Amino acid sequence: MIDGHAKSGDTATARQFFDRVPAEIESVATWTAMVDGYVRNGELDTARELFEAMPRRNFFVWSCMTSGYFKEGNVKEAEAIFDRIPVRNLVNWNSLISGYAQNGCCEEALDAFRKMQVEGLDPDGVSFASALSACAQLASEKWEKARKMRVVLWNKGFEKTPGYSSLSPSNIPEGQ
C-alpha cells in the first residue's frame, strides 16, 4: 500500500499507511518504500529526514537518495550521501556514475568508473552506458573547442591543405 500510493504521487496517504505499520512488522523495505516515494515525487527534504531516521539502510535506499540529489542537480549532496555508504555495490556505483554523467561532470563519472573497478566491481551495461555518455559529452566539448579554433584559424588566413593533415597559411602577406 505504501509503495503503490507513493508511486502514484500520493505521498500523504502513503505516509499515513507508513505511520500505522506496527513496530513488530516494520522492516527496511517499508522505510525504503516511503523514502523512495518521497524521492520520486521530488520531496527530497522529507525523504532525507526519513532516511536519516532509518534504523537500517539497504543498498537501494542509498542509491535512491544519491540519484535523487543528482536528479535535483545537487551534485555535492549526492556525493555526500555516496561517501557515507558503508559497503558499496554495483547499483550504488551506477547511481554515482550515471548521476555525474547526467549533470555534465564527465571527468568525475569516468574517475568513478575507474574507482569502481579498483574496488573489485565489474561494470555492467548501465556502467558502460553512463561512462560512454560521459565520453561522448567530453568529445562533444572538445569538438566544439576544435570547431571554434578552426574558425579562428580560417579568420587568420589558414586553411586545410588538400591531401595533408596540417593547416597552411594562404592569403597572408609575406613577412607576417
Automatic annotation (TrEMBL):
PPR repeats mapped onto the chain: 27-61, 89-123
The keyword Repeat appears for this protein: yes
Keywords, comma-separated and alphabetical: Repeat
GO molecular function: RNA binding
GO biological processes: RNA modification
Signal peptide: none
Alphabetized Pfam families for the sequence: PPR, PPR_2
PANTHER family xref list: PENTATRICOPEPTIDE REPEAT-CONTAINING PROTEIN (PTHR47926)
Protein family according to the UniProt entry: Belongs to the PPR family. PCMP-H subfamily.
Protein name according to UniProt: Pentatricopeptide repeat-containing protein
Source organism of this protein record: Escallonia herrerae
